[in-house]
Please model this.
Amino acid sequence: MKELINYTLHLADDSLILGHRNSEWTGHGPILEQDIAISNIALDLIGQARNFYQYASTLINNPTPKYATEDTLAYLRNTNEFKNCLLVEQPNGDWAKTILRQFFFSAYQFHLYQHLQNSRDGTLAAIAEKSLKEVTYHLRWSSEWVIRLGDGTEESHSRMVNAVDDLWMFTDELFQPALYELLAAGEGFGVNVSSLKNEWLKKVKDIFDEATLPTSFEAKKEPSSGGKDGKHSEHLEKILAEMQFLQRTYPNSEW
Amino acid sequence: MNNEWPLWEVFIRSKQGLDHKHAGSLHAADAQMAIENARDVYTRRMEGVSIWVVESKYIHASNPEDASSLYDPANDKAYRHPTFYNLPDELKQM
Model:
């Protein structure tokens, strides 16, 4: 039961933090239609997070009520309690970095949810099935942007190369299962993420080929991980400070 | 030198509808982006299930100043309407 809770919180945190990062573009998008597109993606992700948090709170409150709600889980946990991977907390940077982060994550989420649909846990399977439709679109949208910018002008191409240099080091963590992920997969309700790596790599190479981006990588920086176990950079501290301060200052405030 | 992306007109067909209705316009770099932008901008509230996009430059419209010569002559030609047939009782629902 504890593994199921941790596993569900990990899925929720990934979606919430990336949704929050994307929402930082609202009102600042490079062009109107893309401002709307990235805001829609943020809303999709936050919706997925809500589904996972609601499920986690029912699990936590069973059998003894602990008064957990989706809101307490999102707004009152501390940095070291969040289980999102490091990739999603990275700063937005320029448009190239944002769409590349989305592409890396959506390609991962697509295969993750495809497998999660077969979870022994009915709720996780249902959330995965519904979310898969949204993620299919996120993957399509971000893939096309990677191609447009990669195979674009000299400037857009070099911005994409910089984005790959910045973000590649965070992709390993996606496929390194935390202990609760291993236990969840063993029990049949979670996905063994290490098995997703090959499909993910193939998708990345296919898109990078079309985008004229290099497909063989020397790790210029050491791969970074630890987010799934609550070891985060100062980025998450700043995100939570902004996201949580209102609920923490005025507890139980509502619209 | 115009740096803006081309303008596209968007037509959406609703779930119960038979025809695509003009919903608005948007800028996009290519047709694929235009369809995705239309999906993001004009179908957020389940307004439709089918999208057509056409670059605005390919739409040709009649000139409103020509309205009298284009449309007025049709006003007084009752013989063009199918109202002079006597339907048998069995077909009254037509």
